[in-house]
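QA checklist item 7 of 12: single-chain prediction sanity check.
[x] sequence parsed
[x] length recorded as 610
[x] structure emitted
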Amino acid sequence: MRVLGVSAFYHDSAAALVVDGRIVAAAQEERFTRKKHDPGFPTQAIAYCLQAGGLKLEDVDYVAFYDKPFLKFERLLETYLAFAPRGFTSFRMAMPVWLREKLFQKSLLQKEFKKIAPAFDGEKLMFTEHHLSHAASAFYPSPFENAAVLTMDGVGEWATTSLAMGQGETLDIHKEIHFPHSLGLLYSAFTYYTGFKVNSGEYKIMGLAPYGTPRFAQTILDNLIDVKDDGSYRLNMDYFDYATGLTMTNAKFDQLFGGPPRKAEQLLTQREMDLTASVQHVLEEVVLKMTRAIAKDTGARNLCLAGGVALNCVANGKVLRDGAFDRIWIQPASGDAGGALGAALSVCHGIGGVARKVAAMGDGMAGAYLGPAYDQPDIEARLKAAGARFEVLDDGKVVSETATALADGKAVGWFQGRMEFGPRALGNRSILGDPRSPKMQSVLNLKVKYRESFRPFAPSVLRENVAEWFEMDTDSPYMLLVADVVEGKRRAMSAAEEALFGIDKLNVPRSDIPAVTHVDYSARVQTVHKDTNPLYHALISAFGAKTGCPVVVNTSFNVRGEPLVCSPEDAFRCFMGTEIEVLVVGNCLLRKEQQDAALKLSYETAFELD
């Protein structure tokens, strides 16, 4: 059974190929088009997936689309009718697009597939519900024979939060909370209000929250959201404009929090930090109530998470430590891109009836290394064509030279093997640094990533050493769990340092690995496993042997507003447009000082800000 999954036309278009239940390939369209969060039809991602599987489009048994457009249209119409006459302006803008394009997505999709294969059989095109796609993306690749599956996002067709139960090949949705009541949209409302971009800036809210205090949390609970003991909730729509308007919040929201939304790129104040701390606190409280009730009501011992809210690794860490479930597993591509994978898996195991095989070790995601790879001759040819100057080393020398560069405090671009699927770089398309350096966070943010100084970086740590450095002893291969640095590695704060507020806390080293230790002593941990990424494991091992620290800084190989690099050429351009000092692509090692100065680029303003 060969199933191609597709998500498109809203956010993070992607394609995935599943053959007999095995995930063969998956990638986001943005990686090929170089357009962040590209919502267009994923022509290049589809071509890659088919090529990776050695197939033509005619060879697949089904093509699965990740949601049902008619149900979405029903929600749009019913919402406007419910709120009429308020929202007519938004309605007038949305209707022509829906009537011209989105309502007839089946025809549009068939037309696009016929461009790829003129003989494409339209009867092969299947549609799965949005939240079922999310749930399938989490349950089927998980290491669990049975599990509860919690999906939380902005909105699909109607559902915004859902509970599904998975057993073997069977996956059924049991409960839903419907639009306009949405945890994801509540979080996005504060993303908008604090001056960040909705659908891409939500992770900044999570990163900024530890600099504030949750002094608005009770205001949110008293006015914006009614939460029951089982975690079910309703929003007070008097304060929001997203159901029918052109903005997320309204004047009543402004009045409640004492002023208009912050403008993008305007100076951050303590107020914004406190607002982010408050909505993060409320989100965690609701999610914990929900997961405790699910465990109690279902008796399930395993929990899977999906949907955009599942990328909130701080909340995930609290769910794990809460202990309501024995084990949790989170889909690394939890957002809409992962819907392509979930749709394919849902059709494969549901309609196709393919037996599910639970992985004997790890999970079914192959470390999320599901994107394109380049062989060594191809890498060398591409780099030469781009004008790069490099030396070719064997694997052992690549590892030792890179470990030395890191120990010397250099920023290293690291490009190896198959590209990651999902928003996180996991050691194949990464920028690496020395976590022991107190300056590394600000250097990487300001001189390499060209982004806000407060943005935290993640540690990649050998799985066998994780408990020596962090207060956790579990797998976290996808950088989706937060844990505190262990007491023995922390640095005590002076009274003057403890008294600092907001961003002033940023430059105070808090541990032996200050570049990855947040102001609350937490870190977004990635455990590195020898079986899924032996070269990255070898590099961190070599760095640990040199320094006594089996941890490196890992951030995505891109600049602010740019998609993760996909090809060797992308990596070279980013290298030449930033202050990355060393680039390693396959077995090619490049040093900045040896490059042709005429090829230097200015990447600081090359991409639209996220």
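[x] summary fact logged: The chain has 20 helices and 21 strands.
[ ] second reviewer sign-off
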